[in-house]
Amino acid sequence: MNEFTLQTPTQEAGLATAMEVVYQWNYDAEVEELRNLYVKAAEAQWIGGRDIEWERPIDLLKFSTTPLGAGIPMEKTSYWRSLPQDTVVELTRRTAAFRLSQFLHGEQGALMVAAQLVNAVPHTDAKFYAATQTMDEARHAELYSRFLHDKIGLIYPINSQLQALLNDTLNDSRWDMPYLGMQVLIEGLALAAFGVLRDLTTKPLPRQILAYVMQDEARHVAFGRMALRDYYGELSATELREREDFVIEGCYLMKDRIRGVEMWENFGFTRAEIDPIIDQSEFSQMFRKLLFSRIVPCVRDIGLWGPRLQQAYADMGVLQMSAQDLDTLMGADEELADKLDAQRFAAEEAMRKTEVHEAIAHGSGAIVEP
What we know:
Blueprint: H1 32-43, H2 48-51, H3 60-63, H4 78-81, H5 85-120, H6 124-152, H7 160-170, H8 176-200, H9 204-232, H10 237-257, H11 261-267, H12 271-280, H13 282-290, H14 295-301, H15 307-316, H16 326-364
């Protein structure tokens, strides 16, 4: 099968945003919990080019058997079983590329929203934290771009549903709406998606990337929860309904986003052919539900939990996710990233000790000229 690369446009039409710039002349900590989160974020900064082990190769033939590319909707069909091995490898590569491309585009969207939040949020603690998140998102976009270009060799354009949600998030003048759209919905979905793929893949490089990114994303979701919990307790029923409508629409957009129909159409399938296969796929059904494991309990926690919203989640088949303990889930995400860090530091220390011992041994056997 001929290899090709899908190029994203180098320029996009600008989106006029309506958020106002809010100056804050009080630099003292007003929300201690947020100030602590800012300090934690500043201390946890890492560098992709230094801390990620990019030298680890990706064997695309072996990669095709791992869940980062697997979990393809038609895997259990007779058609799939009839495909030659090179076609299976290529389809799997494209599936992984599509998923990771949407992560990449979502990270750029998060970068834009975080930068907007520095302007729009009403107090200093939130501005400080949003500045650290802006740096995080730039680093994440850099990582996914490098992985897609150097290891997969394929990148897909942004999915139309993700583009629509990003535009809606950026184009609202109310400061809490970018929080809701990005910190709760998009970041919550990303955190769950990264977690599913991180736990399933056996390849060290993508597992390390996903774990490091998730350590940051857990803080981003916590940022949204902290900022919105108290604020939504003060809103009227009409204002809460507007935000629940936004959540419902956003969740349906994200539910449709993960189908990846455009990738299959690019490969030669029609929507009529692929839609039933995706709907009946066990992996797709499981993946779709798990993607809402962070969003649903977070939405409930911030106070958007009216009957219409609960019914929408029931219709999507994800209402049971409201029972998830979000703090436990995100604590586990951070713990795994810390564990990988400790393993990497231990390996580097062992390597340094070996180099020192070899240098000492070499030096002790040297002959010194008179």
